[in-house]
Write a structure and sequence with these properties.
There is one protein chain. The chain has 424 residues and is of the alpha+beta class. It folds into 3 domains: 188 residues, Beta-Lactamase (2-Layer Sandwich), CATH 3.30.450; 55 residues; 149 residues, Heat Shock Protein 90. It is 50% helix and 20% strand. The strands form 3 sheets. A 6-stranded antiparallel beta sheet has the order 3-2-1-6-5-4, with helices on both faces. β5 and β6 form a beta hairpin. It is elongated, with a radius of gyration of 34 Å. Bound molecules: adenosine-5'-triphosphate (ATP) and magnesium ion. Adenosine-5'-triphosphate binds next to α11 and α13.
């Protein structure tokens, strides 16, 4: 047994049976609080409340140490009287100032019976809150040698000073508060570092992709310049498709970034899914023609009129069809687009191709943002955005092997039966 455990046992022996029961009860409750409550302000508030009750005090407060300004400020102040918010706003104690500041500086608990007649007492706190301090117990919060703050209980109910048992119980609470605060800070710090690293990575990827598209744009503009200055229509004719494709890529990329950047509630409207399929095919017509891809579109009559976010469904189909167009072979490429109604009434969209399919090894990653096997030709936002839109509709997206050998993406979008516009 350690020295500390022996000391703890000794003071527990001094307690009257009912005090012992109260102490064990409250320790049990506080340990459960630490395990269950995940948000720090609620946890601190609850522990302060328990400290107040267990020490039979009129008030309790938690001062946290500010490393930058090297002083203590009130984080939580619980009491029946006085202006606690003014205390939190206006009062700061330097290390060594007041009883709390002294406990923090010396890293030792201070138990005073008559605070007002103690030379170290800091009157401003009472003046600000309107509270009259008599007895006071201040316990420093230290975690892994780091000063975290000070826990105080004020005014023993019924007069007199805080007992040795009060001191030990409040010291135990202080240990829990110190660990909770410093763990929460550590988690926050790690999260911030991870977030910054992820943002950095994302920005680098996006900048790289933008640069590639701009290179294509500038190349075509140079070619156009030459064509214009030399009156050479062949140069212009050659540059124009590159220019169109690059501006299309940039528009698409910006749309994907916007769709990805924030949560959206789909704006539901009724529309003919054939119109959206046609728009998608027009958008990718450059690649379709260039690779002579055979398109097979099959929209069943029941599924024609659907209720969904039209721009969202357009983006879903555009991303799936663009991927299929990228995947199919240079010659003999084939893409099948299907819209049908499931038995449940849900809309089912399928895009299948005869490319190489999605290898099992990466099937789990393809929906991750920035996952791409296309190097400089892809950002890896397409499927992440697609999945996000589908999920925002309460739907599902899956990938499997298509009968024609390539990938088969299947999207299911639930349709409300009631309030649905009649089918044509
Ligand atoms: N039809 C498909 N056949 C084979 N692999 C596919 C298909 N669709 C997607 N993939 C794989 O999933 C990856 C992620 O697709 P996603 O659309 O998210 O990004 P991307 O197409 O690479 O880039 P972009 O952001 O320009 O769409 C692709 O890089 C590819 O490896
Ligand atoms: Mg894509």
């Amino acid at each position: 047994m350690t020295q500390h455990a022996l000391e703890t046992a000794a003071w527990l022996h001094e307690l009257a049976p009912e005090d012992l029961r109260r102490t064990v009860d409250v320790l049990y409750r506080v340990h459960r609080l630490v395990a269950l409550v995940t948000d720090l302000p609620t946890l601190l508030h609850s522990i302060l409340d328990e400290s107040k009750q267990v020490a039979q005090a009129e008030a309790s407060s938690l001062l946290l140490y500010d490393e930058i300004t090297n002083d203590l400020y009130f984080e939580v102040a619980l009491g029946e009287t006085g202006d606690q918010s003014a205390l939190k706003r206006e009062v700061r104690l330097k290390l060594g100032e007041g009883i709390a500041g002294t406990a923090a500086l010396q890293r030792e608990s201070i138990n005073v019976a008559d605070a007002r007649n103690d030379g170290r007492f800091f009157k401003k706190a009472d003046e600000t809150s309107g509270f009259a301090t008599r007895s006071l117990l201040a316990v420093p919060l230290v975690d892994r040698e780091q000063l975290i703050g000070v826990l105080e209980v004020v005014n023993k109910i019924g007069g007199g000073s805080f007992s040795n048992a009060d001191l030990h119980v409040v010291e135990m609470f202080a240990g829990l508060v110190a660990t909770s605060v410093s763990n929460a800070r550590l988690i926050e710090k790690n999260l911030r570092a991870e977030r910054l690293a992820a943002i950095g990575q994302a920005v680098a990827g996006l900048a790289h992709h933008t640069k590639n598209i701009i290179t294509g744009l500038s190349g075509s503009v140079d070619l156009m310049d030459q064509g214009l200055s030399q009156n050479n229509s062949e140069f212009i004719a050659r540059s124009w498709p590159i220019f169109k494709r690059s501006s299309q890529r940039i528009a698409n990329f910006v749309e994907d970034m916007l769709s990805f950047s924030k949560a959206r509630v789909p704006v539901l409207e009724s529309f003919d899914v054939r119109g959206v399929v046609k728009e998608v095919c027009d958008t990718v017509s450059g690649t379709i023609t260039k690779k002579s891809i055979a398109l097979n579109i099959d929209v069943d009559d029941v599924a024609r009129m659907i209720r969904a976010d039209q721009r969202g469904i357009y983006r879903v189909l555009l991303n799936l069809v663009s991927n299929a167009a990228d995947a199919v072979p240079r010659s003999g490429g084939h893409i099948r687009i299907l819209a049908m109604s499931a038995d449940s009434g849900a809309l089912v969209l399928e895009v299948a191709d005869n490319g190489p399919g999605v290898p099992d090894a990466i099937a789990r990653q393809i929906f991750d943002p920035f996952f791409s096997t296309k190097g400089s030709q892809g950002t890896g936002l397409g499927l992440a955005v697609t999945q996000k839109i589908v999920v925002e509709h309460g739907g599902q997206i899956t990938v499997s092997r298509a009968p024609e050998g390539g990938a088969l993406f299947r999207v299911v979008i639930p349709q409300e039966r009631e309030g649905q516009e009649p089918h044509e």
